[in-house]
From TrEMBL:
Coiled coil: none annotated. Residues 4-306 form the Luciferase-like domain. Gene3D superfamilies: Luciferase-like domain. It comes from the Bacteria. This is LLM class flavin-dependent oxidoreductase.
Amino acid sequence: MALKFGTFMAPFHCPVGQDPTYAIERDLAVIRHMDMLGFDEAWIGEHHSCGHELIPDPFIFIAYAAQETRHIKLGTGVVSLPYHNPLWVADRALFTDRLLRGRFMLGLGPGALATDATMIGIPLEELRGAFEEDVEVLMAILRGEKVTHRTPRYNLVDAQTQFAPYSDFDVAVAAIASPTGPRVAAKNGLSLLSVGATAPEGGFDALALHWDVMQERAPQFGHTPDRSGWRLCGPMHLAETKEQAIEDARHGLDAWCDYTQKVLAAPHFRAAGTTFEERVAWVNETGLGVIGTPDEAIAQVERLEKQSGGFGSYLLIHHEWARHEATLKSYELFANHVKPRFQGSSGRLQKASDYAVSRWEELDKRHGDAIQAATDRHAKERADAGQA
């Protein structure tokens, strides 16, 4: 199957202290750029603390970005469901789906930032259990059922939405290190979004775990897992040479790594190394991602295909390792040289070119002879007319 490509945009703005207005404008510019380049989808995160991931409400961002794009699908990547009343999440999702008229996707997760959960009094130990419970409630509401359900975080009494879906939008569940994501996706017949697909600790090994859980658990609830809905995420920065890509990454790789090591309380997503050189090696040599060329990006996606057994979409984890202009160039290189390799969009173009090359000598001579013959006829007609 032809792979789809997009971005998973937390987004990361490192180091802290940047102007948030300009930071958000860069995020919008990336989405507009990807839409123009033919990327398939973009997933936008929800975060409320730590000062680096600056979009608190993906629904608002998506509704705004939809007006500035034409084709790319936009999804919540992800809504931290235990932070919210499932009825309001369902209502916002159905409303956004109607606003986007078929370009909306709903991504769900338990919440990635420990500081977010602690600010609203949810114990970290309870997040994943709450998430499993809330997804079932949310999906019942989305199906149009009337739901009565009480938890310590909300009380629903005959709850239902007034909107019906505009489209059969995709609902995906985030999976990082634990089996919670695939358990929830399998039970509810949802897609899987493996955010930690390439994380050195448990990343490639976790791919097998994630899909094993899907295959084992989904039939128990009457569902068949579909690999075409499985999305894998990983970071890349591309340039025309590996040396240029590494030089580009001097702008922001260290700040991003510092964030994962010293600010973000997430042991499953933590950079290694203390020097720039060590961190580049950590990205390139552990399988986490690519700081290099389109050819190396192709090899990474092929390796993921082999390791996973097949998936439907690869999402570039958005970052600002490089300056904005170089980041846009990286997406352009990916679109021009990596995407076509897996989507088959350039195969016929190459065949057409090869065919033209194979007939060039013959057709070039015939075309030249035809032009000369027409010129000779015209000259003869003029000469004959002059004699007359």
